[in-house]
Amino acid sequence: DADVTQTPRNRITKTGKRIMLECSQTKGHDRMYWYRQDPGLGLRLIYYSFDVKDINKGEISDGYSVSRQAQAKFSLSLESAIPNQTALYFCATSDWTGGDGYTFGSGTRLTVV
Amino acid sequence: AQRVTQPEKLLSVFKGAPVELKCNYSYSGSPELFWYVQYSRQRLQLLLRHISRESIKGFTADLNKGETSFHLKKPFAQEEDSAMYYCALSGSSNTGKLIFGQGTTLQVKP
Predict the structure, then answer these.
(1) What does the pLDDT look like over B52-91, one tens digit per residue?
(2) By the CB < 8 Å criterion, does B65 face chain A?
(3) What digits encode the pLDDT tens for the residues A52-89?
(4) What is the rounded average pLDDT for all residues in chain A?
(5) Cβ separation B43–A106 shorter than 8 A
(6) If you measure CA to CA, which chain B residue comes closest to A100?
(7) DSSP secondary structure letter of residue A105
(8) Whether the predicted pLDDT of A44 surpasses 70
(9) Which residues in B lie closer than 8 A to residue A57 (C-beta atoms)?
(10) How far apart are the first and last CA of chain B?
(11) Do A35 and B100 lie within an 8 Å CB cutoff?
């Protein structure tokens, strides 16, 4: 089983719809992150959480919200999807130091039409 | 500002040729640098980190604080090295968050 699991793997949705991307991990890490990947822009941080009660905005949080339901679960929501949110979304986890690097999920490919 | 720059979007080399993927960073404190690799249709994986000074799959990277660089090198490229490579920065002021560069696609031709 994967350490970090993202669902769904692929999703097509219409403009204006609400959509939730889910992430769960079995690493036992406190820290979880959501990034989006766009060609030529690399990975940009959307939100991050250092524990269940700690949620922080990243560099591109507008239009997104998150929920940390448990240590192992971190969900990303698009309240009203728009076409420029079409991207590949990655969830990642790390231990408290971050020194061992991140463990990434397989990604969710989201298309907003 | 904290920033990671990978100046090349695409690097194309022939099998057996040396490879150098460039990474420059901007950070006022003491950085931790990483290289991640993403093979086609796979998740990102940690390739190496400067603090461990290791060689993974023949790749090495040296942190040069004077030039604020962390270039990734391999003396002889293999076709299976073809992938997207990301340089990433973390530091005490980031409290563990990673800042990624734009990525470089390495294409190794037979």
Answers:
(1) 777 788 999 988 989 999 999 999 999 999 999 999 998 7
(2) no
(3) 999 999 989 999 999 999 999 999 999 999 999 999 99
(4) 92
(5) yes
(6) B49
(7) -
(8) yes
(9) none
(10) 41
(11) yes
Q: How far is CA A72 from the centre of its chain?
A: 13
Q: Is A52 exposed, middle or buried (0-12, 13-18, 19+ CB in 10 A)?
A: middle
Q: Which residue's entry shows tokens 């490919």?
A: A109
Q: How many CB atoms lie within 10 A of CB B2?
A: 16
pLDDT tens by residue, B23-43: 999 988 778 899 999 998 888
Cα gap A112→A61, rounded to integer Å:
17
CB contact under 8 A, B97 and A48: yes
SS3 A69: strand
Residues of A in contact with B43 (CB under 8 A): 4, 90, 104-107
Q: Check whether B94 has a pLDDT greater than 60.
A: no
Residue A98 is encoded by which pair of tokens?
């971050």
Q: Would you call A94 and B9 a contact, using CB atoms and an 8 Å cutoff?
A: no
Query: What's the pLDDT score for residue B59?
Result: 93
Per-residue DSSP letters for A15-43? TT--EEEEEEESS--SEEEEEEEETTTEE
User: Contact at 8 Å (CB) between B87 and B35?
Assistant: yes
Give the C-alpha separation, A42 to A87, whole Å. Answer: 11
Torsion of CA B4, A39, A88, A17, to 10 degrees: 110
